[in-house]
Amino acid sequence: MRDDVRVAALVLAAGSSQRYGGRPKQFEDLGGVTVLQRSVRAFVGVGDIAEVWVVAASDQLDRTRALLADEGITGVVAGGRTRADSTLLGLDALADDVSHVIVHDAARPLVPTAVVDGCVRALSDSDVVATVVEPADSVVILDGPGSHAAVVATPDRSQVRLYQTPQAFRRSVLAAAWDRVEGDVVPTDDVTAVLRAFPDLAVTWVPGHHRSLKITRPDDLSALRAILSAGVDA
């Protein structure tokens, strides 16, 4: 890692968990510890990550701090109403000398350390780093959400990739991107926000992992528990 690169991690856990039934999914048990603890442990102690911050919902700050008191994180900061708000609030909490940031959704608790390391290493010569996986299924693009929507395109699956987290950035680029994002369709991830604001920026693509599933609904947590029980190799 170059001497002028100082990396911090933001673990985002400020969502409302509406599709999970409104129960805070980050506090669910996953193999004897919580989902949030597993997500945090993927970053604490990783070489070249100088700070690890958790962005939590304002009504869950005390619970989050108590849970993570012995996990070696730098601190917990209150998030906002949207992902953009939470990301910007997290960036504001970082030390002034942090030049780059790696952002991860707490809802992906089984991200392998090798993926995290790959993102951090890529920051040596890239301002935007995306973790992606190849789709297992064929992809179709429709012209609307309805059951009778017309097919716009059927992309070649070999050219399609699905975003995961972590995603990593030069700090100033990520902050400027969220400040510039406008329109009715708000990006659901940070790379999309950056590319909307700065479409000419090059992206470094880092391979994700099939075990790094995102918990959106209760069935997703069951799938992750099965992965742990099966001892799936990272």
Report the order of strands and helices.
Answer: EEEHEHEHEHEEEEHHEH
Name the CATH class: Alpha Beta
Report how far the terminal alpha carbons are from each other: 24 Å
So how many helices? 7
The tally of structural domains comes to 1
Helix content range: 25-40%
Provide the CATH architecture: Alpha-Beta Complex
In the CATH scheme, what's the topology name?
Spore Coat Polysaccharide Biosynthesis Protein SpsA, Chain A
CATH homologous superfamily grouping: Spore Coat Polysaccharide Biosynthesis Protein SpsA, Chain A
How would a textbook summarize the main sheet? 7 strands, mixed
Query: Quaternary status of these chains?
Result: single chain
- Alpha-carbon Rg, integer: 18 Å
Strand percent estimate: 15-25%
Shape: globular
Overall pLDDT:
93
> Could you give the order of strands across the largest sheet?
5-4-1-6-10-7-11
> SS-based structural class?
alpha/beta
Low-confidence stretches: none
Per DSSP E runs of 2 or more residues, the count of β-strands stands at 11
